[in-house]
Amino acid sequence: MICGIDPRSRVATLCLLCLTIARTASAQCPTPQEETKQALTVATLGNLISAHGHNLAFRDFSAPDGATGRLVMTTFDSLEAAQQQIDEWIKGASEITCREQHQNIGDQRISDRILARAISKSDSKIKLFLIIRRDGLDCYFITSSSIRVATQIESLIDPTANKRTPSS
Questions:
Q1: I want to staple 100 with a disulfide (CB 3.0 to 4.6 A). Which of 70, 113, 114, 167 is the partner?
Q2: What long-range pairs does 157-163 form, CB within 8 A, spacing at least 24?
């Protein structure tokens, strides 16, 4: 025994510490800071059709410093359809950096927030920040070359705008 603790207890304590750190790190994704906000301008509004034939609305934003970002949003009729869209958006990420999940009674995921990185399809030198979010049946996909612009676009989402939940 070293330091008066038997090897099994040391291993168990180390494992517990690692699990606690991993759980804390994965449960708290960074959020935007107030002092980094700039005035965003809506550059384009439009509609898209998803790979599964669902209508998506989008808004392109620009910041005074030249950074741009896009918000794609839609509402689904079922959790399965909403989760299928989230999974499709996740496939485009090269790296998931953080994931938050909130659950209600019965362990049904009621919201997801995923921060990820991707490489631009038009220019492989450009790295994009992604925020993929689901609030009930509402899904949001934010892309930007600036994490500041991406989180600022996310802060514009009004969670009370559509109060439909999986149970309604």
A1: 113
A2: 157/71, 157/73, 157/133, 159/135, 162/75, 162/137, 162/138
Q: For residues 98 and 132, give the distance between their C-alpha atoms in angstroms, rounded to a whole number.
A: 10
pTM: predicted TM-score of the whole model, two decimal places: 0.73
Yes or no: say if 68 and 58 are a contact pair by the CB < 8 Å rule: no
The Cα 93–Cα 117 span in angstroms is: 6
Q: Rounded CA gap, 26 and 13, in Å?
A: 20
- The number of beta carbons lying within 10 Å of the beta carbon of residue 106 is 5
pLDDT in tens, 8-20: 665 555 545 444 4
Q: Dmax over Cα atoms in the chain, in whole Å?
A: 68
Amino acid at the residue 75: T
User: With 90 as the cut, is the pLDDT of residue 35 above it?
Assistant: no
Summarize pLDDT for 41-80 with one digit per residue, the tens.
999 999 999 888 889 999 999 999 999 999 999 999 998 9
For the domain spanning 34-155, the CATH number is 3.40.1000
**CA-based end-to-end distance of the chain:** 59
Alpha helices, H only, the chain: 7-27, 79-91, 147-155
